Records
---
Amino acid sequence: MRKRFQSTLSFSSSRRKLLKASSVLAAAPFLFPRYALAAAGSSEVNVQTFYRGDWIAAFKQAFSAADTVTVPADLVCDNINTAIFMPAGKTLHVLGGLKGNGKGRFVMQDGCQIVGEKGGRFHNITLDVRGSDCAIKGIDMSGFAPVTQIYIGGKQKRSMRNLVIDQITVHDANYGILRQGFHNRMENVKITNGHFNRLQGDAIEWNVAINDHDLLISDHVIENIDCTNGKINWGIGIGLAGSTYDNEYPEDQAVKNFVVANITGSNCRQLVHVENGKHFIIRNIKAHNINHTFSKKAGIDNATIAIYGCDNFIIDNISMKDSAGFLIGYGVIKGKYLSIPQNFKLNNIELDNTHMQYKSRGIQISSGNATSFVAITNVKMKRATLELHNKPQHLFLRNVDVMQYAYSGPALKLNFDLRNDVRGRFMAKDDTLLSLANVRAVNEKGRSSVDIDRVDHLHVNTSRLNFALPEGVK
């Protein structure tokens, strides 16, 4: 997938290429000594005490005077239209409101915290994370002026650790959280308990994050993600991407070592998206009304979970209703097929499109490579097709029950014969295994409904199938 930005922050044109921020956003700050304390020692001040007609000056003076700066509940600080650098170790405690025109931002350095409570809110202001041991908690964010509400990036080559983003609400905005990971490294990141609603861009995008390690994205509600502004590749719930596709799957080019879990999503075109990733888990997803009517001009596939060119992953415990299912496919750039998914397991998958008003994707999988496996277990789908293309070395299907209406095609499609297709180069050829057990594929009348073009695997094991394999199977 390629992502294009046009905004006052001047982002360039690729989801998987670095989305360059403007020189203002990328400017490296002067770093204070880590956890340096203000001269007044550990203390808390009200920013209003320092206000003399300029809130930006007031915040700068307040941070110099104390460790914690408070915006009280009855106060709104407006015209925050430039950068405010929080010295290391400082805390911004927000009970009231802060407003800007999209050019304002709080730059968080080592040990900084922004904590909201009792309605603490930001409007058209970006929080710019530039340090280790930072936390953003309990705040409400909105505004379409900035590209993103929380930006994690910068061009400084450094390692940053221990970022916590918890219990935030983002609504009526473009992007929620945007990470640009090409230049630096993030370790031990926890993004939890968020609510994202009425966004044009992604709720969370972790882009070109080839250096990052130990990322947890969990316990979020994502709804009403609909790109109507014509931006290409905007409008995904959670997206993660590495760099250039490579069928050897080198570690230094992939987004890796992450977990996406406990996500409830509705009313969007695509809920979870990973490209050029490895060593990851997606689990406990509940999806409703994921369909093509959202983000119509964004140029992205319609799927609850979309996986492109990935290796070594697990997708487990996914419940979908009235939704497009999975797309697990090739890594493609400009029409060139560069990689194919390999070494993965799908388990405990449910999709019920009985009452869906649109014809939609069920589960569509392309997989392969000389030494690879795919395991698909405990799948139940209604009014949907399970479709597999190409040939991994070892393919296992266990406890699969699919029903598709006859007018929409077969319930199970196995397309192993790509001898005359350019994508056939990804087929495994040696020591191939096809193992099918307790697989049932029927139409709405309960009759067998399959389309299998060719089975030439070296080893074939079957039991409890409601259909026959093609003649000549080895």
---
Amino acid sequence: MRRRFSFIAAILLCLTAVLAGCGTKDAESVVKDLDKTLSSLDSYTGKGVMTLYTGQQPLEYQVEVSYQKPQYYRIALTNAKKDITQIVLRNDEGVFVLTPRLNKVFRFQSDWPANQGQVYLYQTLVQSILLDNARQFAVDNDAYVFDVMANYQNGSLTRQKIWLNKSDYAPSKVEVSDANNSVMVSVKFDSFKFGSKLEKNVFDTQKNMGTPAAGGDQATMASPDNGSNASASNNSAANGSNASAAADNNGSNSNSNSNSSSNSNDSSNAMSQNNADQPDNAATDDSANNADNAGGFSGDNPDNSASTDENDNGGNASDNASADEDSDSAMAPASGTFAGMDATYLPDGVSEQDSQSIVFGGTPGVMIRYSGTYDYTLIETQPKDMAVSATKGELIDLGFTYGQLSGDDVQKTLTWTDGGTVFRLTSANLPENEMIKVAQSVQGEMSK
């Protein structure tokens, strides 16, 4: 009798093992299913936490992702400590980077995200699995795990591990590592749903700007017809401004407005309201390039005034930045009323040359110069007025925020906003991957 019970128990165990094995597929089967899933993808939504390990302390960001076929995207990154959300939109009008709390909108001429992967986008993750023929595959409880090559703007990110739920292939976790196998970025999804029904206003620029910032100001479109802005830009060029200073003279839009306050105060509200409803005005106007210059970014149009300034000054970021101190309209020494942030990462052979308080576009700021193997200048300001601007710069994913890379072969400027501070990193010889590393290291340490 006991033998019979033992025999039955053994059969049940074998059946259990067989049934459990039926739910597990091999790598080839999963890859085929992923290809089909990607081809039939209509929409999805996801929420999770992204952690960056690029600084001295890990930084966490809440991530919300929405996608609607064929090319509508919405990504919201929220820094809980700073209580600031940045939104990236792609809709019929183009690609937008929004910071609602700062009343700031920038429009990019870009085919993002087709030209650069994103760790929180399902298409990016699946494509990396499909394209890596040397992929590694494992099974971890209820998930399939792929270890594949990483393909991101930051060249230091070399590999990534992707956990996909067995049931529907939804991502549950992603870890991106450097060449030393150290995890630099991780994303843990709290939820991920395919086939989400999304209203069109989810991807609407004005809807995502939400309520006005404190004080009731609407996001305003930089006026391409503002002669004072153009004049300020020309004066800056005449004084020998470099790309970063030209940008800040762009930022000196606020100075131009103050000089013509009797006119601008009466018209700014009307312009704010009209242009807030028409985010394409700067892009469609014949003088859109001047709108870029008024928008406060450095070298938004590499073929226009910023490029001219760069060429005239030989592309030496540090020397040009020093020369700009002599131009009151662009930059001048100031008392220490602004606490800047240091870059904790320095490329090999680079050291900090000096740091000083300045007035930049009518706004207190800090200028830090670095020299050595590479020469570059970091300018930090906290402008009060933010404007909508159309720009031809390249959209750069810094992980914690999005920046704009502008300029030409002579000199480039990487501009980004974090916590209300605008950062401008300008150099003639600092490679793009090193620019990204420097930018990522700025968010954390306060200057002494």
---
Amino acid sequence: MRTLLLSSVLGAAVAAATPGVATAAVTAPARPAPPPKEVYGGAWKSGHVQGIAVDRRAGHMYFSFTNLLVKTDMAGRPVGSVTGFTGHLGDLAFNAEDGRVYGSLEYKAAKSFYIAVFDVRKIDRMDMSAEDSGVVSTVYLKEVVDDYTADMNGDGVFDGNTGATPDHRYGCSGIDGVAFGPAFGKRGGQQRLTVAYGVYSNTSRADNDHQVLLQYDVRRWKRYEKPLTQEAPHTSGPAATNGKYFVYTGNTTYGVQNLEYDPSARTWLMAAYKGVKPAFPNYSLFAVDGTARPRVRPLRGQPGGETGKVLPLAPRGERHAATGVRGWSGSPGQYGLVALGRGLYYVVQDGKVTEDGVTKQTARARLHRWTGAPPNPFTRLG
């Protein structure tokens, strides 16, 4: 998405500088204002911050606070909010092609997992209802439900929301990280929504050591979108994905919390809570080269010689000699991560404050530059 926007600006500049081109007819779109060094997401009686999305041209930032979505301007002033989520609202991603924000939304007790789609132009006041305001539509993800509810030990019992079980295929605990970017192995082209599994922490099994990434072409998702009905979850969604991929990282605690594609580096970043398996380095950030072609290979740890489309980790950061896993051991990004291009990122710092005896959750999106140096590849600016 951001690549397309940047290309429009650069294309206009090239045309204006090319002999024989009528520069008067070329109108370059307005450039976004320089990103501020920090955007404060406010203090809310809610769950902790899960992720952010940014629409720089409109001058808005969106914060997910688990059961609350907050819209601010780039000075951190609240513009509106969406409340009333009884499930888990996770990471967010802005889709520049339709101007909407997409987020992961879980209802584990109901065995229902969705992408929540926010018509953010309608968010113009505080405390808008997630169900009744017409702001939120949802799309059901059957692939996730199938893996979450998989009876891996064949006892005929669904063990529910717990990692202390052999059930849940690949250790799937639902979904968290979301981002837009090209199909894996492509340098550009049609943007797809990539959805990362949450993965339970469980040191007693060997089939939960991959991050699982699903890709979807959302251009025709309007036919699936339904209003959010939390008391009667719907099952309207695509029957299949546009690609299912595996990245060998070792087990993490609840999988990819924040997923982000950097078009200027053609790199996917996966920020996670560290795992606890002693055989692995348990990094907090991993990178995937977006241009690397996925290869069908046996999936390590899976029973029956199962194969899948495997993506390699990028040859960056620290390298664990015993496993070959690469990443960064001291990286932030688990609470929010957005690439702005040219090596700039917003990285979110979570926090708490007490106001009038009430504990509230806070979020600060702070501008960083990517250095790639271990153990923390981000350097804060300002």
---
Amino acid sequence: MTTGRDDKNHPAGSEASLETGTEKTAQPQGRTPEQADKAPSQLQTPEQSAESLAGRHFDTKLIHFGAEIDPATGASSVPIYQASTFHHFNIYDPPQYDYSRSGSPTRQALEDYISLLEGGAGGYAFASGMAAISAALMMFSAGDHLIVTEDVYGGTYRLLTTILSRMQIETTFVDMTDLEQIRAALRPNTRGVYMETPSNPTLKITDVGAVTAWAQEHNLLTLVDNTFMTPYYQRPIEQGVDIVLHSATKFLGGHSDVLAGLAVARTPELAAELKKLQNGLGTVLGPQDSWLMIRGMKTLGARMERSEIGARRLAEWLAERGDIASVYYPGLPGHPGREIQEKQSTGYGAVVSFDVGSEERAKRLLNRIKLPLVAVSLGAVESILSYPPMMSHAAMPREVRLERGIGDGLLRFSVGLENIEDLIADLEQALAD
């Protein structure tokens, strides 16, 4: 049988014949060792990928990110390594991968991909956005105090107030559009600042650079949920943020077919801490879902641009109506955070929230709408219309929700890739009395 190897140079049983761990380029059938040696490494470090891709535009990096071609076969897609464990060819030279909870080639490709896009020192993929957020918040210890965006995602609010609170991790929620409120919340045991900008669902804008500069003066760890903007529009690490988080289920995945979370660390030291937590907690993303994430992220730029055009048109149309109580979108001229948004981001995003005035009217609209999904989540190719009081912020007590501006008539519209005029016509009929 032909194996593509020179058996005279690699006799059976010799140690040389066993030195094919996953940290080295494998020798596939039909390819000589010399050919394999010339193949680029699929498993570059984030630093190597960033160096090799320096100078390329973001849209190009979405397609050519260092692992887009399988070095063993030339396949145009990262292979799905559907394996739970990996053979040690040489017990004295352990392979890069030994057990899939600790790492796998498919997940590594995704993790290096998001690290490259965010400009970090290391990226990590989790089983959900909340798994990524939970792991990052586990960097804090009992007795620590956190300052957090007041209208944060409901799942993050629930984690902080019902789970981490039992571990004696304290939280103060503040309006992060006001730097004085953040300063006033500082305590001797404050250890971190958690930002969400634009916030979910009222789309308030936090000045990331200003908050981070203040936090650094007090040696505080800074975290940002970048789900709504993605690295296509906003890269907080460039403004000094320590950890960037994503519910990758949303815009990064983009197709409503995968549940995933991503975290990116600014420094190698923080990356090592995140890796330890990921491995210790075991909330990792599987290889098939990692592959789906990579597939979805390749079209991120095209999707974000198209959806944002629709979102801006929708926000303007809603703002012109006399029967809408409030419209929240940072691209509107009257949005109080527009100037800051334009300073720290290159776009406004694809999510528009609006208040129709009452719970009764909101629910009537949801039952009449025909094109968008009426569902939890956002950031997909199909538009998704959500009702935060019953969906994303159901875990937040009503009185707390109302204090944060999340009224009973509030709806959140994630604009997809449909023709925006069709979406507006559908919304118009659903709003009719």
